[in-house]
Amino acid sequence: MSQFVDLARNLLALEINTVLKTGISAEKMPLAGDALIDLAQEYYVFLCEQLDTFGNRETAILAPWAGRVSETFHWGLAPFVPPSQAAQPDRYDPFFFSRDLPGNDPARGTTMKVFDDLREVASWLREMTDRTLDAARQPGATADVVSAAAMIDRDAPPILMRIQRNSDQINDVLRRRGLDTVSYLRGIDEEVRRMPTLKTADVVTIRKAWDVGTELVVMQSTIQIDGDVVTRLLKGRDNAGSSVMIGVHKDAVDVSFRYWSFLIDALGRFAGKAVNTLVGDTG
C-alpha cells in the first residue's frame, strides 16, 4: 500500500520538459545501479568542461585571478591546487581530475562520496561563475577576468544547480535504503545493480535525473492537480525561430495531460477513494 500511496503522490503534479540535446541514443533507462554510473560520469564530464575557464585541467592549477576570487567565499570544492596563501586549503581537491570516470575504476566506483564531490564542485562552479561575471562588469575589471567571463557558458548555472540538487536526492535515496556503502561498477553483480530495495518514488527520482542529465531545458510546463498551470520558456527562445519547438512542446503537453488524467482516474477507481485521500497522511 505504501508504494501505491507514493505513486499517487507523484501524480499530484504533471511536469513536461522540452530539452535540447546533441545526439539522441534512444535507449531505455538501464538497471538503477548502471543509471547512477551513467549519471555520475555525465556530471563529471560536464563539470570538467566548465572548469577550463578557471584553471588548467592538465596541471590542476588554478589561475591566479581565479584563486583570488575563490578565497572570497567559503563553500564548495575547487578541483585545483590551492593558491599559495589559501586561507582554506581543505576546499581544494587537485585529485578530482586525476581519477578515472566514476564506475570505471575498481578502487573508486560510484559511491555517495562521488556524488558528494560532484555536488561540491558544482557549488563552487556556480559561485565562481556568478562572481566572475559580476567582476567583469565592474569598472576597471582586469583583462584576464573579462576574458574568462567571455568564456563562461551562460546556460550552465541552472544545470550546475540541477547537479547539486540531484546529487543530494540520490544520496538521500542511497542512505535511506541502506545502500550508502555500495560501490557501483561496470560489470558488478546484476542483483546489486538492480537495487531491489528501491521504492517506486526512489526509481522515479533516479529515472528523472538520468533522463534529463545535463541537457538544456528550454521549455517546461507544470500542471497541478488543482488546475494551476505554469509554463516557462528559456529567455532567448521566445522568438519566431522557436515556433516549431513551441509547437512540439504544446503537443507533448496535450498527450501527457490526457495520459495523466487517465492515470488519476484509474487510481481513484482502483482504490475506491478520492485522490486527496490517497495522498493524505499515512502516519
SSE blueprint and pairings:
Blueprint: H1 2-10, E1 13-20, H2 32-51, E2 55-56, E3 61-62, H3 64-70, H4 112-136, H5 143-151, H6 156-176, H7 190-194, H8 200-212, E4 216-224, E5 229-233, H9 243-271, H10 275-278
Antiparallel strand pairs: 1-4, 2-3, 4-5
Helix pairs in contact: 2-4, 2-8, 4-5, 4-6, 6-8
Plain-language structure description:
This protein has 283 residues and is mainly alpha-helical. It folds into two domains: 1-18 and 226-282; 32-98 and 105-194, no CATH class. The chain contains ten helices and five strands. The protein has helices spanning 2-10, 32-51, 64-70, 112-136, 143-151, 156-176, 190-194, 200-212, 243-271, 275-278, and strands at residues 13-20, 55-56, 61-62, 216-224, 229-233. The strands form two sheets. The protein has a three-stranded antiparallel beta sheet, with helices on one face. A two-stranded antiparallel sheet has the order 2-3. The longest helix is centred in the C-terminal third of the chain and has 29 residues, at 243-271. The radius of gyration is 22 Å and the shape is globular. It starts with a helix and ends in a 5-residue tail after the last helix.
